[in-house]
Amino acid sequence: MSLQNSKVADKFATFAAKMGAQIHLRSLRDAFATIMPLYILAGLAVLLNNTVFTWIFKGKTLLQVQYWGTLLSNATLNISGILIAAMIGYCLAKNRRFDNPISAALVSMSALITMMPNTVKLIPDGAKKAVDISAVLPYTNLGTGAMFAGVIVGLLATEAFVRISRIKKLQVHLGENVPPAVGKSFDVLIPTIIVLSCSAIISALLYNLSGMNLINLITTFIQEPLRHIGTGIWGVIILYSLGNLLWLFGIHQSVIYSSILEPLLIINITQNIAAYNAGKAIPNIINVSQVQTYGLMGGSGSTLCLLVATFLVGHSAVTKNVSKLSIAPGIFNINEPVIFGYPIVYNVALAIPFVLVPVMGLVISYVTTTLGWMNPCVIQVPWTTPIGFSAFLATAGDWRAVVIQLITFVLGVLVYIPFVMINDKVLKKENDNAAVAGDVQEA
């Protein structure tokens, strides 16, 4: 790498590192990571309800057993909007080094509730037309439909709350003789009143002047356009490829993937889970499970393909030893040993397949799903699920998805093979140059 290229790489790495450390993106990443187990549980509950249970039970017994899965969906997927608002409040407050992050979570969640309509249209059981019902919070407003609103309201409400809470004159001190929990509550009493009152005023003005609510506005004019652009096939390819490029500079791809792309992909999979649970058409081909299943075979860069290619054609003792040590974690999509041991970082010889193979997996899975050759992903499975199992579970038991994933894996190995050979030649040349230099110094 030339000196000029090295300087460009260093500047890019510095910029990417600063972007990854940006407090709002970091808080967003932390919040989604915190509630990820709930989404996985929701997916498993929906999978059992709509596949396994239907194989075992019938009629009234099936409905009774499925009630278990419905309760889990209600407790996870169908309240995901307020869950993400609360977690963003907590994570952002912690990252701001605010000493009472729990209160920030409560304020964030309550602020989101103030933005919800007091009257909604619902179809009663047995009826055909919707009627206006007041003083209810339907799952449609609490769940996936409110996720992006939860993100925006969570960030704004928490920022306002933390800033106002640090104004000394607005803090109510009861002295040292009161329990700490009581003292902390009164310290943020006035800021809580101010933030929630202001959010309620905004919501009331919006409703009285336009008849709309912030949830619908954010969903219609921000969430859906951004989600369609960011999670379209080209948007995912560009953003995910940029994330993988960061690995080449030693920066975790989560700087772009987890902070920018993954939240949108999670919204897509939650919509798919809800649609699959309700027996409706699946709305999103591209979602977080699809990207993980076909674009992260062995981790970022689909490096499990690289390990197999190394076993097949590799000659370097160093890379073969690294591959032997990395194959076990690689099966479970943990590839830091490959990234830093092979290495991928600053390795020009492997840059092309590291970016190209995941893109190939995304395109193949998108096209085959569009053509109806396999079902779309409707379950969020743990990212550590090995290939084969991941495709089968993510598509709710479609064996064709397993075949397509294995074909994609084989193609990935074939793409990596020539670059493994190139990398071996580079390593041999470096070793030869080092040996020559050593002989010169001895002479």
TrEMBL record:
Keywords: Cell membrane, Membrane, Sugar transport, Transmembrane, Transmembrane helix, Transport. Residues 8-419 form the PTS EIIC type-3 domain. It comes from the Bacteria. GO terms for cellular component: plasma membrane. It is found in: Cell membrane. It holds the Pfam family PTS_EIIC. One of its GO terms (molecular function) is protein-N(PI)-phosphohistidine-sugar phosphotransferase activity. It is a multi-pass membrane protein. Its main location: membrane. The chain crosses the membrane at residues 31-56, 68-92, 104-123, 143-162, 188-209, 229-248, 294-318, 339-366, 402-422. GO terms for biological process: carbohydrate derivative transport; phosphoenolpyruvate-dependent sugar phosphotransferase system. The phosphoenolpyruvate-dependent sugar phosphotransferase system (PTS), a major carbohydrate active -transport system, catalyzes the phosphorylation of incoming sugar substrates concomitant with their translocation across the cell membrane. This is Permease IIC component. It comes from Companilactobacillus alimentarius DSM 20249.
